[in-house]
Write a structure and sequence with these properties.
The strands form 2 sheets. Strands 2, 3, 4, 5, 6, 7, 8 and 9 form an 8-stranded mixed beta sheet that branches. The chain has a 4-stranded antiparallel beta sheet with strand order 1-10-11-12. The model has no long low-confidence stretch (mean pLDDT 93). 33% of the residues are buried. The longest helix has 15 residues. Helices cover 19% and strands 36% of the residues. The protein has a single domain, classed as Alpha-Beta Complex (Nucleoside Triphosphate Pyrophosphohydrolase), CATH 3.90.79.10.
Length: 211
C-alpha cells in the first residue's frame, strides 16, 4: 500500500442528501475525474458498458454493491456495481444500467431515479464503462441472479465519500506499473475489499461531490 488519503476533506453529510445530489447533477461544478483508465491487459476491441451506482435513500444513504461469483470470466469474485455490456436495443447508458440491474439483482426500475452519469472509465479488460448515478427508494425486494451474483450488500455513502478510507496501491509486472484505489469496508463479520474499477469510479464520484 502506498498510503491513505486522510489529508483530503470528507464530503459533508448535507451534500449526500437526495435533494443536494439532485442539485449537483442539475448544475454540476467545474471538476475533473481523477481516474480515466486502467493499464490495458487485453488487446480486444473496447466494449461499451454501463453500471448503476444505486444510492439507497435511507436516513443515512448507502450504496448498493454486489459480489461477483468466482467462476465468471471477467472480474470474478470482485465487488462491483450492477451492470454490464450495452445491448443494441438500449437507447442509452441509463437504459443499459437499469436493464442490467434488473437482470442481475432484480432491482425494479420503477424504484430508481437516475440523476446523471460520470465520465467514461476504461478498464484493463477493455470495457468502456459509463457510471450511472441514481437514487433508489428503500423497501425494495431483490432476487439476485445466482450465476452472476454471490452477494448483495450496502455500504454507507458517507464512508465511501471520506478519503481517509481511500487507500492507494501499486505494483509492477513485466515492466508495467499499475496503480489503483481500494476502500476496505468491515460489513459486520465480513471484510468487503472494494478496489479496482469500482473504487476508481467511486473516487471520481468523490471528486464531483467535493468540487
Amino acid at each position: 500500500m502506498l498510503g491513505v488519503d486522510s489529508h483530503l476533506p470528507a464530503v459533508g453529510p448535507e451534500i449526500l442528501k437526495p435533494t443536494a445530489l439532485r442539485r449537483r447533477f442539475a448544475a454540476p461544478p467545474a471538476w475533473e475525474p481523477e481516474v480515466w483508465a486502467e493499464k490495458r491487459f487485453s488487446d480486444r476491441t473496447p466494449i461499451q458498458a454501463a453500471v448503476l451506482v444505486p444510492i439507497v435513500m435511507r436516513e443515512h444513504p448507502t450504496v448498493l454493491l454486489t459480489e461477483r461469483t468466482k467462476h465468471l470470466s471477467n472480474h470474478s469474485g470482485q465487488i462491483a456495481f450492477p451492470g454490464g455490456k450495452a445491448d443494441k436495443d438500449d437507447v442509452d447508458a441509463s437504459a443499459t444500467a437499469l436493464r442490467e440491474a434488473e437482470e442481475e439483482i432484480g432491482l425494479d426500475p420503477s424504484l430508481v431515479d437516475v440523476l446523471g452519469v460520470l465520465p467514461h472509465y476504461l478498464t484493463g479488460t477493455a470495457f468502456i464503462i459509463t457510471p450511472v448515478i441514481a437514487l433508489v427508494q428503500p423497501g425494495f425486494s431483490l432476487s439476485p441472479n445466482g450465476y452472476e451474483v454471490a452477494d448483495v450488500f450496502e455500504v454507507p455513502l458517507e464512508f465511501l465519500m471520506n478519503p481517509s478510507h481511500h487507500q492507494r496501491h501499486a505494483f509492477e509486472w513485466e515492466g508495467v506499473r499499475r496503480e489503483w484505489f481500494s476502500m476496505p469496508y468491515q460489513d459486520k463479520s465480513t471484510q468487503r475489499f472494494i478496489w479496482g474499477a469500482t473504487a476508481g469510479m467511486l473516487r471520481n464520484f468523490y471528486r464531483l461531490l467535493s468540487a
